[in-house]
Amino acid sequence: MRSDLPDNPLAALPPSGKLLGLDLGTKTIGVAVSDAMRYSATPVETIRRQKFTLDAERLDELIAQNSAVGIVLGLPLNMDGSEGPRVQSTRAFARNLSARISIPIAFWDERLSTSAVTRMLIEADTRRDKRAEVVDKLAASYILQGALDRLRHG
């Protein structure tokens, strides 16, 4: 089954204001934030996943602290563009989160984000244990930066 990402998956986002980027994993959630002008994404933190309610409460805090107006959530499509179990899990997380928050959530194709960030860290000669600490929030930043570039350049 092919992904049903629309031609402009970011259309639901407001035209201005800070955005949070999320890289949703099974054990962690990488979080990044854009600047208000939406030029750059900055890694914020990696949330160790617990129960959904606790994860959502931390995201609520980050939305408030950063005055975020929207969320860009990485969608883990298969390499051929099809959707697997991880996409279904991500969509379920988004549905549950959107019931709690008042800002829109847009999906962004995250294929290769973690591997690109890992490769960059290896090239920078980052130790394996240090890479593990930062890869998720850097992947969130990578996902958000891709969305910001698309918003700026159409």
Structure keywords:
5 strands, 43% helix, disordered N terminus, 154 residues, 5-stranded mixed sheet, alpha/beta
Strand segment count: 5
Question: What is the count of DSSP helices, taking H or I runs of 4+ residues?
Answer: 4
Strand % is 15-25%
Spatial arrangement of strands, main beta sheet: 3-2-1-4-5
Q: Spell the H/E element sequence.
A: EEEHEHEHH
**pLDDT average, as an integer?**
89
Structural class: alpha/beta
Low-confidence stretches: 1-5
Measured as a percent range, the helix fraction is: 40-55%
Structural notes for this entry:
It is globular and about 40 Å long. The protein has a five-stranded mixed beta sheet, sandwiched between helices. The chain has helices at residues 52-66, 85-98, 113-123, 128-153, and strands spanning 19-24, 28-34, 41-48, 70-75, 105-109. It is 43% helix and 21% strand. Residues 1-5 have low confidence and may be disordered. The chain has 154 residues and is of the alpha/beta class. The protein has four helices and five strands; from the N terminus they run E-E-E-H-E-H-E-H-H. Helix 3 packs across helix 4 (128-153).
In short:
43% of the residues lie in helices and 21% in strands.
Topology overview:
Elements: E1 19-24, E2 28-34, E3 41-48, H1 52-66, E4 70-75, H2 85-98, E5 105-109, H3 113-123, H4 128-153
Parallel strand pairs: 1-4, 4-5
Antiparallel strand pairs: 1-2, 2-3
